[in-house]
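re: ur question from earlier - yeah i can do the single chain one, its not a big deal. heres the input i used so u can compare w yours
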Amino acid sequence: MTKQNNQGYSLDPVTFEVLKNAYVNIVDQMAEQILRTCYSFVIWSRDFSSALCDTEGNTIMQGSGDIAAHVGTLHYTAKAVIKKFEGDIHPGDVFVVNDVYQGGTHFNDTRIFAPMFFEGELLGFAQANGHWADVGGAVPGSFNVSALDHMAEGLRITPVRVYSKGKYLSDVAELIAHNTRKPDDIIGDLQAQAEACRLAEREIQRLCQKYGVETIKTSFAEVQDYVETLTRQRISELPDGTWETTDYIDVDPAEGEGLIPINVRMTIKGDSVHYDLSGSHPRTISTFLNCCYGGAFAAIVAGTKMQSPDIPLNSGFYRVVTVELGPVGSVVNADWPTPVAGFCSGPFEKIMNSVFELWAEILPERAMACTFNLDYLLIGGRDTRHEDKPIFMWYDWMVGGWGARNGRDGWAATGPVFGVQLGTQPFEGQERLSPVLTTEHELLIDSGGPGEYRGGMGVQKGGTLYACERTVVSYCCDRERSVTWGLWGGLPSFPHGVWVNPGQEGERYLGSIFSGEPLHQGDTVTRPSAGGGGLGDPLRRSVERVLSDVTEGYVSIERALKDYGVVVRLLDPDLAEYEVDLDETLAARQRIARERPAMLEEDPEAVAARYRAGELTLLDLIRQYGVIVNWGSGELLEKTTAQFRDMLKRRTVPYWSTRIEQVDMDRPTLRVA
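and the output i got, formated as tokens:
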């Protein structure tokens, strides 16, 4: 084993391997400590991450189940605390920080940070990050679409001491907690995170006693060198070159309709990889779907790391993977006091999916189409089931579909790429804590993006309010207009968006980004999550697989014909027996192959008018015509449609078959380099 600078490692391989894995185990123990002692339902649902850092704040190791959006940011906040308190850090100290302008993600992600000492010597730091359900601001849950600056989003906590030499500073903790809507939960979570840091210190001290402090200090450096060397070796085996793509945020509300570009340019040179995001939208947008440098860097790191899941993650990785964000003040490099609470649904998801797309050209065996967009639905108000009418927050996120993969369909009803280990919150727990009754939660038919390999299925979830007053709803999402896209000829999925009282009197469509909308007892709120995008030409999907999808309830008979060109007939509804007409299927596929390019050139307003008249469906517009409308009113979004069609002509149309000579049976194909 040789380091990049050709100096030999000083630790023997066995000791090195034992300690490297011990550090992963320590961070995972921190996770268990938080999970078993936290107060809030959000953190209990695993919206947290932890890390060990060296004396400079560099990450030594992260855990095996951390949130992707936290990856790549914990070392930034570590360095911010060290800089603020340099020379004034003592055994028993604990610090708290959530500052997005000092390397954080959004204000809900609050980091508890503590030094690790052994016999009076500072060895490093432990850090536990958790998503606090509320940090104040104008709306419950602190997701304020209308925020003009971060002051309207919630409490900004610059690095501050909350334990001093082991003494709990209750005045500081309570000042923070009582600027939120759930102070008891905040205090409980803070202390759970602090105890996780103390656990890490005890475990490091135990290793020092067993192996010696100098061995531990050496291993802190060498595990980072190891990751750097391993990553450089992996990159050096790949071809040099530059690849570029663009994804989109739905809209800047202040600028009118039109997609907001997130441009990612990747260059591999030798044994390093560099990303340039400076071609993205040059200004911040007038809502909270902006991203500071910490969140943008985390998206790059998480997307790249998924190409080599076997490599551990620490600051050695960051020496190989570098990022240029461009001028401060852009949508991916927001500055103070820009609101950024929705970074995870905005630039983060777009950057990460763009990274997947770029790597698909280099490692096609790992190719994956776009995944569904992370969403947060927050219903908050007063719970009248109790005499004192406490504040409640129904804080909900959805599972959805991942993109189809090279040779495989996408995963259905899975956590977002933002954080795969996010738990699907049990309805029983939600209903106990909030007066919202879950009325539906099921796979959404036709939500998987069509392709030779189908995107994973999204879901539909609904809830009805009861025993409540002074209640509002907020929603943080995207991909209502920049619909989850397919790759290499695959088709898009399904748009996100929230309906209140669908199919009832007072029905209204709220869209995919809003806050503070009033709700009343008896209202029902329903929303879908998108499936994943398809991969490959859907006319090349085997008829057996399409028939199986219909039988399983994943694809309707109507969409089997329109999206896949497969003619399916229902024989016996009680027995769910179907058959495929192979002759008509071949004719349908030949017709679709001839006609589909021209459908993307039809007059958009004429198509929108047919939608408003009920002649075309939502999925017809998205998949066959590339037309985007306001899904509530049917009004054409002209500029958005032009951009969406351009995206289809880049990602999809060039890979379509122009002639269909036969009906493919169950014959999987795999694209190779």
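Residues 600-673 form one domain. not sure if urs matches, ping me
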